[in-house]
Every structure is written in structure tokens, then in C-alpha cells.
Amino acid sequence: MVALISYRIADALVRVLPARAADRLAVVLGRAAFALRLPARRALEANLGLLSGGATPAAVRDRARSAFEHFALTFTDFLRLARLGSEALDRAIEVRGAEHLAAARASGRGVILLSAHIGNWEWGAAYLGARGTRLHVVARPHPSAPVEEFFARRRRRWGVRPLAARPLWTRAAEALRRREWVALMGDRGAPGARGSVSDWAEALARRTGALVLPAVMVRLAVGRYAACFDPPLAAGARVRDRFRAAVLRHLERHPGQWCAFEPLPEGLA
To answer: How do beta strands 224-229 and 211-221 pair?
Structure first.
């Protein structure tokens, strides 16, 4: 109940405060969370150290602080989605790799959207849902059922549905065979199994004939995002290596937007 009240208070503040004031408050709270030296900070700094190409401890710490601030802004923007129209959402987003998105749509196949906790994944899902994509998101449910419904209600507004039923593999395969889309976060462990999400995605693509589409939604400025799509991959296209290369590329360009608060899975570390 305390968690739900906290989220509702945050939602009310975002609704009544001017956007700049709400963002400043979010950054302050993000910095406070960073200063608490939570386990999430230790995991993030370890992950950044692994993938930042020899960055100094000070640089890793600065990037981790930026990521905490960014995560707070990401949550604030997620709350704004509840009061944002589809036209306003469209104006706020530029598309990079539009030809790759078009190719995946035109394939007539199911699509596994393989993303990471870079930028704003909630806006990414809303962007696709607003354009008629039947998108199912594999996400770890919140321990509190009321809080989970708080999030799910906002996602449903954009046509985004959770894929939480068990067995997960079966439900995902059924959706893909219906030529729908399934979104997975590749910087966490495989759902319900050992190994990497990218390997899980490749096996699922092989079984169903689906394509794998790497994509992230990065923040450009206040209220501005870029939806970035890589070329779609068929099963057997070394999905793990291609996904890792995409993560490294986005991490180099946006080092303070990677919110990897858990140890990295096999294949990405």
C-alpha cells in the first residue's frame, strides 16, 4: 500500500507541477537515490565497468549518477504518457532506422522486439502500440498487485499488454505465430531460464519463424526522443553478437541513459 501511495503522489505531482519543476524534482530524487549507495548502484557501476571500454572509476561513477537521474526523468515521462495524445507523442519522437521498422512490419511475420534499459523503454512500447502494433511485453511483475495494475493500466491505454501467463514460452510463441510482436529486454536474464535473453529470443525465432528487431528509445532533450531500429534478424543471424554490438554502440553515444540495475546476463557481460 505504501508503494502505491508513493506512485500516486508522484503521479499527482507530475500532473500539477510545471514540467521543468517536476523534472528538477525528479533529478534531485535521482541524485538522492544514487547517494544512498543502493545495491542497484553497485550493480550498475559493475556493469558500466564491464562495458565502458576501460573507463576510469570516476567516469563510471559519473555515468552511474547520470543514469540514476535519467531513470527518475524516465519515470516522470512515463507518468506523462497518461495525459499525452497520440499526435503529441508522434511529434515528440524522431525515428532512426525507419526502413528497418518498415521491413519488419512488411515481413508478414511475428516480430521479437529485443531492447534494453536504455533511454525510455515505456515510450518505445507506447510508440509502437499507438501505431497499431499488437505488442506484448515480457516484464517482471511488481511485487505489489495494485502497483502492477497502476503500470498496466497506463500501458493498456496505448494497446500494450503484458505477457505474464505461464508457460511464458508457449504464450510468446502463440503470439508470434499470430504475427504479433513480443518485446524482451536483453540486458536481463532469460525469463524463467538460464542464459541470455538474446539466445532465448533466437531460439523462439527459430521455432516460430519470427524476426528479431533490435531497438531502443533514447532521450534527446526535454520531451524529445529518438526511436532507433537496427536491421531485423532472422534466426541463425548471431543474434547475441548483433545485440551486444547494438548495446555497446548506444552506450557509447548515451552513456548516462543505461539503467542496468541488475547483474548482466550471460552473453552481454
So the answer is: antiparallel
Q: What is the amino acid identity at position 259?
A: C
Starting at the edge strand found earlier in the chain, the sheet holding 135-137 runs 93-96, 224-229, 211-221, 111-115, 181-185, 135-137, 160-162
One DSSP character per residue, 137-190 reads E--PPPSSHHHHHHHHHHHHTTTEEE---SSHHHHHHHHHHTT-EEEEETTSBP
CA 138 to chain centre: 11
Rounded CA-CA distance 54/77 in Å is: 32
pLDDT at residue 190, as a whole number = 67
CB 81 within 8 A of CB 212: no
Separation of CA 197 from chain center: 13
Name the DSSP letter for residue 265: P
Q: Walk along the chain (269 residues) in steps of 10 and give the mean pLDDT of each run.
A: 85 93 96 95 94 88 97 95 92 96 95 96 95 91 89 93 84 95 88 75 93 95 93 84 91 93 82
Q: Which stretches of the chain are DSSP H helices?
A: 2-16, 19-35, 39-51, 57-80, 86-91, 98-106, 121-130, 145-156, 168-177, 197-208, 239-253
Of 201, 217, 180, 168, residue with least CA distance to 268: 201
Contact 90, 223 (CB under 8 A): no
Cβ atoms 195, 267 nearer than 8 A: yes
Alpha-carbon gap, residue 1 to 8, rounded angstroms: 11
Q: Are strands 135-137 and 181-185 parallel, antiparallel or unpaired?
A: parallel
Q: pTM for this structure?
A: 0.92
**DSSP three-state, residue 126:** helix
Cell readout for 76 is 516522470
